[in-house]
Design a protein that fits this description.
single chain, 469 residues, alpha/beta, Aspartate Aminotransferase, domain 1, Aspartate Aminotransferase, domain 2, 2 domains, 7-stranded mixed β-sheet, 4-stranded mixed β-sheet, binds 4'-deoxy-4'-aminopyridoxal-5'-phosphate, aminotransferase, transaminase activity, transferase, Aminotrans_3_PPA_site, pyridoxal phosphate
Length: 469
């Protein structure tokens, strides 16, 4: 097993863990718990696999954090970064300057985006892009002389990032509880999550009826607030971090109708769904919405370097440009040349490998078919997928949908068994999710689903031994 030969000295796993616990505050982590367990040290990646410092090979069914879409170890991206760093590692886009590589990426993104998108605002992350969205929509309505349109509607259980504005746009109660969020002017409605509502609003409804009901929650909220106070609605086409929640087919057309009816801007957060994950370049194309703004990050560079941004539709861009004045917003690294060079190489590779079509016509349907074979497992209550993102819902009694006692943390137990079996899968409560690199093959999907079944079997054994079932 090759040790990393990069800047850090060679150390044993225990030494890395001790140094990590001493100095590294991790994102979304209980540090006391982490220090007592010891962190897993990942040293290398190739294709859909990563290796840890103990030499274990792990199938990365989460593409890092939903981002390594072209897989690990793609030389074209590395070479693009090295070339750009040699020629011009940095220059800014403030003060009447630009760089050819940032212009080329903006042009490329405009060509890939649905009709009506000609402009892009670059950021470093999805969170910053959603902060940008909040400022953009308020600026837009101010310029149109309707400053009273300030409220942005989002959804419960949504994830839109971790800055103050992005965490406020998100609908995660635990995040809101820390730091007094959401900030004013952001409200939330329910999600089209049929499984979660099975004992309540969704009881007795088929998928279509439930989808229309969930869209109605948006209209009800708009009417309660007063349509002239609402600036925008933000949502992911398919909710990712909340648990890969694939909405009923009736949901998005209704949402679009409602946004149109009240003249409300639609923001499609494409941070996970963008760049082929759902089998189209953009998730909005899969679900059939027509957003005014699109948030992107992650897949634009396959995570090799940080880059995010907002695709700004002409409805907003024209007002911003023609009614003018300075938009007082931006980042040192907006349009960072190295990030843009890597993005261009990444997008070229996605095209060369025909990954978007492959997800739509080959690997996406294959994943759905293979995951469906898990439906007979005594722990599986539901399976949902869209392209190469999928959820396996664990249930104590799959037939009735009865849930496990949350105190038993069955999802976390399953995630542990995944890791032990050489598979990275994520747990959102008792919902197990996958989003493998888009380069995954049918044979690798078979291997992945085999590992999922094995982890489910071990989880079932543990649940039986502990008396949870
Ligand atoms: N929006 C969505 C839909 C996301 O999934 C994420 C990250 N998981 C973000 C925004 C935030 O992106 P970042 O972590 O790059 O700030």
């Amino acid at each position: 097993h090759p040790e990393p030969d990069l800047p850090a000295p060679r150390r044993t796993t225990r030494e890395w863990q001790a140094a990590d616990a001493a100095h590294f505050l991790h994102p979304f982590t209980d540090h006391q718990a982490l220090a007592s367990r010891g962190v897993r040290v990942i040293t290398r990646g190739e294709g859909i696999y990563v290796w840890d410092s103990e030499g274990h090979r792990i199938l990365d069914a989460m593409s890092g954090l939903w981002c390594v879409n072209v897989g690990y170890g793609q030389p074209a991206l590395v070479e693009a970064a090295a070339r750009q760093m040699t020629q011009l590692p940095y220059y800014n886009a403030f003060f009447q300057t630009t760089t050819p590589v940032a212009v080329a990426l903006a042009e490329k993104l405009a060509a890939l985006a649905p009709e009506g998108f000609q402009h892009v605002f670059f950021t470093n992350s999805g969170s910053e892009a959603n902060d940008t969205n909040l400022r953009l929509v308020r600026r837009y309505w101010d310029l149109l002389g309707q400053p009273e349109r300030r409220v942005v509607i989002s959804r419960e259980n949504a994830y839109h990032g971790s800055t103050l504005a992005a965490a406020s746009l998100g609908g995660m109660p635990d995040m809101h509880a820390q730091g007094g969020l959401p900030i004013p002017g952001i409200v939330h409605v329910g999600q089209p999550h049929q499984w979660a509502h099975r004992d309540g609003a969704a009881r007795g409804l088929d998928a279509d009826a439930f989808g229309r009901l969930a869209a109605q929650w948006l209209e009800d909220k708009i009417l309660a607030l007063g349509p002239k106070t609402v600036a925008a609605f933000i949502a992911e086409p398919v909710q990712g971090a909340g648990g890969v929640i694939v909405p009923p087919a009736s949901y998005w057309p209704e949402v679009q109708r409602i946004c149109d009816r009240y003249d409300i801007l639609l923001i499609s957060d494409e941070v996970i769904c963008g760049f082929g994950r759902t089998g189209r370049w953009w998730g909005c194309e899969t679900v059939g919405s027509r957003p005014d703004l699109m948030t992107f990050a992650k897949g634009v560079t396959s995570g090799y370097v940080p880059l995010g941004g907002v695709m700004v539709g002409e409805r907003v861009a024209r007002v911003l440009i023609e009614r003018g004045g300075e938009f007082e917003h931006g980042f040192t690294y907006s349009g960072h040349p190295v990030a843009c060079a890597v993005a261009l190489a990444n997008l070229a590779l996605i095209e060369e490998l025909d990954l978007v079509r492959r997800v739509r016509e080959d690997t996406g349907p294959w994943l759905a078919e293979r995951l469906a074979t898990l439906r007979d497992h005594p722990l599986v209550g539901d399976v949902q997928s869209c392209g190469l993102m999928a959820a396996v819902q664990l249930a104590r009694e799959p037939r009735t949908g009865a849930a496990f006692d949350p105190a038993h943390a069955v999802g976390m137990a399953c995630r542990r068994h995944c890791f032990d079996g050489g598979l990275v899968m994520r747990a959102v409560g008792d919902r197990m999710i996958v989003a493998p690199p888009l380069v995954i093959t049918r044979a690798e999907i078979d291997e992945m689903v085999g590992l999922v079944r094995q982890a489910l079997d071990r989880t079932l054994e543990e649940a039986r031994a502990a008396g949870w079932v």
